[in-house]
Recover the amino acids of this structure.
């Protein structure tokens, strides 16, 4: 992971954990809201990994999306939840690792391949 990724991740973590963030830490781990967070995280991780070929980039950008959404919610326009951010990142990890999985149909056969750079 590049140094800029570490700096951005640290800045986002500080933003969410600051006293002004008003994030809750006792939110439920299940529900329709968590399914949406996981799906968006997986989509971001998957797409970024497909574009860059790097799993770390997919995970990073899903983390940015998840934590960024909670930072926006922390101003009172939504409910800032640490569980929402965590579920988004978890979905991003799954999406990033499957981002190199490509399914194609060639001459009537299904071809599954995996390609990524670590």
């Amino acid at each position: 992971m590049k140094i800029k990724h570490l700096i951005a991740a640290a800045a986002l973590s500080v933003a969410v954990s600051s006293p002004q963030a008003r994030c809750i830490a006792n939110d439920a781990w299940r529900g329709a809201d968590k399914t949406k967070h996981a799906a968006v995280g997986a989509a971001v991780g998957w797409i970024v990994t497909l574009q860059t070929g790097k799993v770390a980039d997919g995970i990073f950008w899903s983390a940015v999306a998840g934590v960024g959404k909670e930072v926006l919610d922390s101003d009172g326009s939504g409910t800032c939840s640490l569980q929402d951010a965590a579920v988004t990142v978890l979905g991003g990890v799954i999406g990033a690792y499957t981002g190199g999985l490509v399914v194609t149909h060639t001459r009537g056969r299904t071809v599954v391949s995996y390609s990524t750079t670590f």
The mean pLDDT is 78. Residues 52 and 58 are 8 Å apart (CA to CA). Residues 55-77 form the longest helix (23 residues).
